[in-house]
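To: structure subgroup
Subject: Chain for Friday's discussion

All,

I'm putting the inputs and outputs inline so they're searchable in the archive.
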Amino acid sequence: MRAAIADPQALLWVDIQPESREEAEPLLRDLFQFHHLTIDDCFNTLIDPPKVDDYGNYLFMIIHAVHYNGQAGDLWTAELDMYVGPNYVVSVHWSPLTAVNEVRRRAENGGLVMGRGAAFLAHALFDVIVDEYHPVMNELDEEIDRLQTLALAHPERPVLEDLMRLKRSTQRLRRTIYPQRDLANRFARGEYAHLVGTDALMYYRDIYDHTVRVEEMIDSVRDIAESALNTYLSSVNNRINDVMKTLAIVAVVFLPMTLIASIYGTNFEHTIPGYDTGWGFAAMIAGFVVIAFLLWGWFRARRWL
């Protein structure tokens, strides 16, 4: 590796997925002589936001890959730390990344990944990571369509939980894609001309276009999720109103019956019709039925039922 670094015509890619800091830190510190702040960022247990720092003879980048489990509705990001020098790229990540495996496959198949310099190799890694956002956004878009339909037809609590989980996922994506868009824009504007040649700028502009498109998709899903949440709350309120209306109608139907029963319950002789006859109780029940049907018909005529 020392010989490759010293050879300006060579291109070295070192990909590190360490088990511990002690395993990889000597390589970064002693062989490549990277700044200790960048090494701390590589082994920080917290997820750092996407960024790029210029250390003169190399760039230090942090990029986030995205993973989504559609069945569980879980979305999380994985950090890729990358050093880009004049003739080398060093990538560090704690978990397996499909983007790294894809770029390695292209390199092993004899593609142009390793034939155009470190800037193009870094572009390949960055580009595949951003491209992985698109299928995730398509899955989220299909999920929000399903939830929007359920929010209107079956506003149950699991629908609300799925909506809130999806909103959290879109917020996490927004916090990730915004700084990555700015990172791609800085490359596309040629801020790092000493390491990224003009022939590579158009490729980074393509990454910038992809991040802008992903950003628009995230905003669209977020807006639809907000609309679906409002639909859910409206459906729940309508259901509550229907229940309250039904209970009110039942109460109104039984109110005159209760009044009549309470009057009959006073049992005053010579004041209650049919008190001393056999037809009094039957007449009262018949009156209940007639009143109930009259009220029911009136409610139907007013379209309250």
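Points worth raising on Friday:
The mean pLDDT is 85.
The CA atoms of residues 73 and 165 lie 7 Å apart.

D.
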